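Lecture notes, unit on protein representations.

Consider one protein chain, 227 amino acids long.
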Amino acid sequence: METQMSRVHQTTYNAIFQHPAVHNLQWHDVRSMLNALTDVTEEHNGNLSFRRNGETLTVHPPKHKDLSDTQELIQIRHFLERSAPTAEAIVAEGVHLLVVIDHREARIYQTERHGTVPERITPYDPDGSRRHLHNVDDDANGQRLPELKAFYEAIAQTLSGAEKILIFGSATGSSSAMDYLMAALKDHHPDIAQRVVGTVVVNEQHMTEDQLLAQARAFYATPIQTM
C-alpha cells in the first residue's frame, strides 16, 4: 500500500467530498486512489474489499467507466471519513496547516482532515476591550498601522507544532496581513518561519471553505515546494 497520494489521487479524493455530489468520477481513478490509501483484496465474486485503520469497504466494481451511483459514492465518502487517521496519529506524523489571514482574523485549518473546524484568532486591543483592529486609523503617511504584536504572537503559538505551514492572504504590500505575519515569524520565530512552505495570494472572499482547503491540499500534494 502506498503511503502518499499523488496529485491525481488527491484531486479524486477531494471530488468525493464535494457537495453536491459529482456525477462524472471515473471508476479507475477512484480505485487507484483507494489502492493508494488502503489494503485491497479481490474476492472470488469479483467484489473488491478495501481495508484501512480497522474499517472495511466492499465494492462491486461498476459495469460502466464512471461511478454514477450516488449511494455508492456516499458509501466511499463515509468509509474514508471513518477510516481517517485519528488526530493523535496525524500529530505524530506531522501536521500540515493552512492559515487564511486578513486584518480581521486568522483561520487555521488542519488540511489532512475533511470537515476540519478552523481555529479563529482575532486581533483585539491589549486592554481587553475586544475592539477589532481593522478599525485602527491610518498613520500620517497614509499607511496602515500594523496590528498588535499579540495577534501575530497568538498565531505563532498555534503554528508551533506544525510540520508544514501554508499561508493564504488576500493582499500584498502594506495592506497584507500575510506579509506582516511572515515578517513577525522571521523576526521572532525563525524556526516556525522555516516551516512555511508557501505564501499565496487568493481571492478568498469569493472562495468557499471547501475550495480553499482543496487548493491547499493540491499544493501540499506537489512533491517539492520552496519558498
